[in-house]
Amino acid sequence: MISLTAEYALRVVVCLAKRKAESLTTEEIAKQTKVPLGYLAKIMQILRNAELVQSRRGLHGGFALKENPERLTVWDVINAVAPLKRIRHCPLGLAAHDTKLCDLHQQLDDVQAQAEKAFRSLTIASLLVSSNPSVPLGL
What CATH number did the domain enclosing 22 receive? Predict the structure, then answer.
């Protein structure tokens, strides 16, 4: 449903949200999230450009979550790094489907719409307060 990049970005954001205002180095984030260091650099750049994280220089530098986890949604993170693609027009380019998708593509788009709705309603903070004993990233 979501890309590997989106999965990794969600791990990073949950990790940073758990540590609140504390800055973490890319090495610390990579270790905690199990995201390969080279891939992590790309994700951190995307998240920084989307203004979801901020970087700090210096002795206690690193990355911290910029957005409040109470307001930040799973959708915000996914949309920043690898947006879900809705089906607005026939992927086959069939003229007969120009105004109305066929049942297959309409059903696929409906599922995407349901996923989008769920992701928009799920905050990062809610992932941290779950009663599930299996906490994200084992943090």
Answer: 1.10.10.10
Does residue 36 lie in a domain region? Answer: yes
Q: CB count, 10 Å around CB of 127?
A: 18
Give how many domains the chain has, as a whole number: 1
Does any domain span residue 74?
yes
Can you list the alpha helix ranges (DSSP code H) found in 1-139? 4-18, 26-33, 37-49, 74-81, 103-121, 124-128
In a domain, 91, yes or no: no
pLDDT in tens, 39-71: 999 999 999 999 999 998 877 779 999 989 999
Q: Which residues, in sequence order, are CB contacts of 63 under 8 Å at separation 6+?
A: 16, 23, 24, 25, 26, 29, 44, 48, 53, 54, 55, 56
Supply the angle between the helices 26-33 and 37-49 in degrees, to the nearest 10: 110
